[in-house]
Predict the structure.
Amino acid sequence: MKMGQKQVALFILLILAAGIGLAKLTGYWVTESTKQPVAIKEGAFAGLPNPADIRGSYAFSDVGKAFDIPNDALLRAFGLEGKDPATTKLKELEDLYANSEAEIGRASVQYFVTLWSDIPSPNTGVYLPESAVAVLKEADKLSPEEEKGLESFVLKISPADGTAQGAADSTAVAGAMDGTAIVGAATAATGSGTSKNESPAAVSGKTTFQQLLDLGLSRETVEAIVGSLPDTLGMTVKDYAIAQGLDFSAIKAKLLEALPSP
Amino acid sequence: MKKKKFGLRLWMQIGFFVLIALIALNHTLGLPWLSGASLHAICPFGGVETAYSLLSTGLSIPKVHMASVALLPIVLLLSLIVGPVFCAWVCPLGSIQEWIGRLGRRLLGKRYNKLLPTRVEYYLGFLRYAVLGLVVYNTARSGALLFAEMDPYYALFQFWTGEVALTALLVLALTLVASLVIERPWCKFACPFGALLGLFNKIRLLPIRRNPKTCVACHLCSRDCPLNIDVEKQSVIRDNRCISCLECTSERSCPKAETVALSFRALTGGQDK
């Protein structure tokens, strides 16, 4: 059997059409974000939307619709009063809070949603603006334990200047975003009352490698967590992680866990 | 030497290029009768990038949609049967490199695509596998679409939006400029998806075959191969660089009928075309 140009062209088009057709029939031909997070597959919360699947391309109204949270509450939580929830996307938060010492972005919205909805998702080491905590308290969505645990992760910040006036205690808890495990939100927020909660310093987007060493971490420990060290220790960990193609959130969580207690 | 005509493959390339360009533009135009698909969704390499995340967490990595996961087995099936035809017949990035290459051929004549020694080109081609490994590993590790930072395909169709990383724009610029002197430089030296599809050349059901009995050793097939594969020296092309463009089987590149062809079995016969 031989194939010339005509047969090859026809064959390509046929296979593509058949394959895409089959994908459409089976519901796999999704080319745009459906703005609906996938459902949690197992456990007590199976069937409910998974906050870990919230995408940066979602608008605030998409999050509100998926998790039954009033748009007004979402916008106030992130200092976006007056903005259109249908057109303001989560990925804009990173630009709005670009000068923040700690990241405020999609992960912060995911964390806010887990606290509002009581759907567990491991979300430690993520910061919220003070306005978000206020909204959660106002709506009576925080237990006393969650409220106490949140004290370490609050930034007095607004998108107007994008600068934080510092977390309440600048403490941090180890952990990283992980879409698979299910951890109780209360447990995550309280950090089990371990000494990690009393660590004196936070690792943020502006923390340099030299600052990590000054905080008591050894070069070997930092190198083991990050993978390598830059030539200049004055470089921020975040910039180095981005340059190396690494997940800064995960590295930050491990560094926080490794920080010695005072 | 016969002039390269407007063949069927070129029409296919133009068709897919225009389709993807329109889809990209539609993000700005907002035409209801045209797809608003994400560019990442219609690139099958997204399926490769998200495979680990999908298998381990059930979630695709951000920006990658299920359509690219659906496209991946379709393209792999094509590669298994007729080789990496996606590269030569569909991929718009490959197409634009070829079209710029036409200009390069006019400027450089016979020297076009022959500036690098064949051996050097051959070994540099293995860089693609390094890129593939690094992309897959780092994407799995970070759970993010890191390749977008250097993806010239995305840059090509989004350069006006301000959403493209500077590194991706630089890679695109370098690719397009290099296309003036080397045919398909991205495909040859850096494309991770091409690296993967190229492996299917080893097992494809319909390889390109050459009939040594009727071959007159005119060397045209080897000369015209865009990937500089020495077709004349082989009876079955299993080279991982082959993109199934079928240039070597064309009238232009082989004066003997049924001497070089895409065939399931060994060729017999062979007359003047």
